[in-house]
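Tutorial, part two.
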Amino acid sequence: MNKLYQGALACAVAAFVAGCGGNTSSSTTAAPSMAATIVTSQTSAQQATHSVEDYYPMVQSIYISYFGRPADPAGLRQFAEYLQAMNAPTSLVELNTLAYTNVQLQNLLNGFNSSQESQELYAGDNSAFIDAIYQNLFGRAPDADGKAFWLGKVNSGEMTRARASLNILSGAYNDPSSGDVAAINNRATVAANFTTALDTGVEVRGYRGQAAAQSVRTILRTVNSATDPASLSGQITATINTLKAAVPLSAEGMYHNDIDATGNTDLNLLVLDDDTVWAFYGVERNSQYDLFGYAKSSAIGNGTSLTGAMKDYGNGTGADTTLNVNYSAGSNLTGAIQTNNGPLSINAAPVASSVYNYNTGANINEITGTWTMSQRVREPQATVTVNANGTFTGTVSGCTFIGALKGRANRNVFDMTMQYSTGCDQAGTVVTGIGLSMLSNSGANREFILLGANTPWNRSSMFWGVRPK
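Running the prediction step on this input gives:
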C-alpha cells in the first residue's frame, strides 16, 4: 500500500455497513499521550542510523534508574522505537545533552513522571526520590553535596524527576572507570537477561504490578561492580516461574460476535496469551470475509475480565475506544467496546476450530506463494508474495514494502514486521502487528490477513486476501 491509514470502529454502532464501507468523515482523536509529539516519519535525510535493538542497553539503564527494575518487553521496544524515530543517539551522555533542548525527548522521558507506577513508588517528597535513584543505580545513599544539588534542581522545577534521574545516570559515565559505572552496567546486563527471558505471553503477564516489580528489584539491588551477571541466571528463572504460577487464567483464543441482526456483519476478537486483543470487523460476502477495519487493545486480564484502552482503525481518522468484557476462558466474552457513538455490545463465542484453530502452531506453508490482497474499500489491491522462510514482499500503486512473519509455537498467529520503501508516502516507516491464516466460504477458501501499525499506533496497515484452499 502507498499509504498508512487511520480509522474508527464507532461506525459499527451506527450504520456499520454504510459508515465503514467508504465514508471517510470519522471523528478525530489525539494519538496516545506519550506519543503525541514523537516524530513518526522522517525524510530520507533523517532516516534512523541505529536499529531498535541498539537502544536496548540504554533504555534498560533508564528504566533501572527511574523504576529500579528491568523494562518489560513491550515497554523496552516501544521506548527504543520512539528513540529510533527521532534518530536519537545511543550514548547516555549524548542523550542527556539532547534532552536539554529536544522537547520530543523531554515529553518521552516525562511520561515516567505521570505513570501509575511512579505515583505508587514515589508518593513522598523529592528527597526520598533522589535517595531511591541512587539506590537503584549504585546501591548506596547519595553524598550530601550531590543530594543537595539534585534536590535543588527538582524542588525549584528546573528539572522534572525523570530528567534528574537521567542526569544522575549519565553523570556517572563522566568517569567510566568508576565502580558506579561497573555497577550500572552489571545491573543493566542482569535486567536485559531478565527481560529476554520473558519470552511467553504468560511470563509477560506475570511481570505486572508492584509485587512482581519488587521481586525483581530485590535481585537487582544485590548486584554491584563485582557481580558476575551470569551467576544470577538461576535466580531469574526461579523468579519468573514464581510470577508465572500466579498468573490468572487467560481468555486467549478467537471469538466471534455478530454486530447486526442479519448475522452478516461480524466482529472477531483475537485474544493473545499476553492479553493483547485484536478485533477485526467486516462482512461475509462473495465467499470471503471482507475487512472494514480493526482495533487493538493492550488489555489487562484478571481471570474473569479484560479491560483496557483500545485504538481503532477503519478508513477514516483514528479513534480511542475502551474495551470492557467479562470472560469464561475458551467459552465466551460478554461486555462492550465503548466507542464515540456509544457502546458496541459484545456477546462472543469461540470461532469454530474448523475455521480457525488457535491452539495449533502457525503454518507458513498455508500462506506461501503470491496473493492478491485488498486494503480498504475503494483502495487499490496489492500483490504480496510470501516465502517459505517467512519473509514477504509486496507492491501496490508504485509502493513497495518488505516484511517478515514469525510463527508462534503452539499458537496459530504470526508476529509480523513490515517496512515501507520506494514510492510509499511514508518510506522507511516500520509497521508491527500480526498475520493470520483462516478459512472462509465454508472451508473452501484460505484467507490471509495482515494487521499492524507504526510505533505510536496512530497509523495503521491492513491487508487481506483469499484463494482456494
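Confidence is low (pLDDT under 50) at residues 1-46. In part three we will examine how such features are distributed along the chain.
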